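ok so heres the complex, two chains, lmk if somethin looks off
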Amino acid sequence: MTSAHTSLITKEAIQLDLDANSKFDVIRSLCGRLFVVNRTENPSSLYQDIIKREEVVSTFAGWQTAIPHAISRHISVPSLCFARVKEDDFSWNSRDEIVRFVFLLCAPISEDMKRLRQSQSYVFSSVAQLIGQAETIELWQQASDEQVILDSLCRAFDAWQNG
Amino acid sequence: MTSNNLKVGVQSLGRFLSGMVMPNIGAFIAWGLITAMFIPTGWLPNESLAELVGPMIKYLLPLLIGYTGGKLVGGDRGAVAGAITTMGVVIGADIPMFLGAMIVGPLGGLAIQRFDASIHGKIKPGFEMLVNNFSIGIIGMIMAIVAYKLIGPVVAVITQGLGDGVGWIVEHHLLPLVSIIVEPAKILFLNNAINHGVFTPLGAEQAAATGSSIFYMIETNPGPGLGVLLAYMLAGRGMAQKSAYGASIIHFFGGIHEIYFPYVLMKPKLILAVIAGGMSGVAFNMITGNALAGPPSPGSVFALSLMSTSAMGIVLTLASIAVAAAVSFTIAAVIVRRDLGATDNLGAAQAAVADMKAESKGVAAAAAMAGAVKRIVVACDAGMGSSAMGATVLRGKLADAGLDIEVTNAAINDLEEADIVITQAELSDRARAKLPGAEHLSIGNFMDAGFYDELVARLT
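and the predicted structre for the whole thing:
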């Protein structure tokens, strides 16, 4: 499936069954993935920016989902990563924050921050709709190919942007 | 207009006035301290440092209010336009132009906001900065000229009218009624114009004949203002309550009455308290025959005591302050307390229960009414993560309920205009400081459907 959103997320930015013990492991791993796909030259600093945002207030979103994100000078273009955590009982902060799916969104600092924020809001707006759909959650849980996840996200982004 | 709509209108106006004044309370306190300490009759007279007093009250404080008023309406660009416009009224008048600033600051913001809306999406790439800068420059210039030419003369007419009104009351021996004009005029920062333009000349004339004059005690009595500040201290809540302690010291001991004016502007109904307090003080002095030998400046308890005619005079002067403060406090406390526990006339019990229920879930107990809510902003730190998700959920629920309310998401730093702002509890203080005029609700998790269901039910 082709989509206008390939600059935001690619198949390589999707990780299935990520083995992680904490949210720090997940975020570190996703930052490394952004380095591999040439979206950041400094994954360590990018990680710090994301953690800094995480410390302001947790990005646990409920519905087995967390949405760490940051606006950082260490990312070249707006980029989204997806991770499905391997363990069923993985928790984001506390025991009652069970997370299976992690969406990491990073956007570069812009002169017009307000416009940047508005332009990227569709990403998590779409995610908010997706995680409320039982069939989508089931699809993500059972997917064995990253392309399945990518297609479901791109379809949602297209639908959102087309009104 | 129904009484409900009128009430909503007054509440909205109060929130708007509060939004212009509260962020600048610190500047008022700084000015009050400088004045109380360094003017010739202050605690530590210093001619050089006292030069700060005039420019701060004439330029800085009105400009800050105009800037903030513009920002409330038109964001950062509105703030700049508001400040430019305010300069027009500042220069156009001899008195501190707070009233003018509160009118023209938002107008400046509105002008640039309307312009921005009209050209949205029509600027060719590369010309945005040019258009942005010159639009503020040109519109600001026009607004400043309009403010200079129109608002200044209007305020001069208001001042003249007040002076004439006081003269008529004095001539007809209805002196306590003079508070009906004096106290509201003080709140509009016309206190010096009234005191020095009307009462000081009248008092000087009377004192020359009898050795003392009651006119010196009408505008300068700190009792009414003290009563309002005491009401905030004992019955208020939040920043207004906390700052009232310091303000009362500056007001009562320093004699800087301007420090309490913003507290009345935030709740215009408190004008009744200061009028009643002022009338009581004047009536007390009329009945006891108390008067001052000269004009107390500033209007502090010390200056009034020093100007009292004798030992008994000091007792009577202190008593008149106490009477005025007690009456003002009694009324103000009722108003402040009632506003805190605001329940909406018709289902009072129902609303109270809903508020308590909302509080238990971290929702503030404010009482916005459905008809008054036009825009809800879900805000977070970055403005593109949790808030985007929350706005999506709320938008869907409002649409399902058939409510036509705009829902957007934003970074807290970008908050500009909203009737209700929703933030995670950890961020609510920041949001409140950024947009004090809005109702703020705290949410634990942005995807908490129950929270949105309750909000929608309240707005339906």
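quick notes: The mean pLDDT of chain A is 87. thats all i got rn
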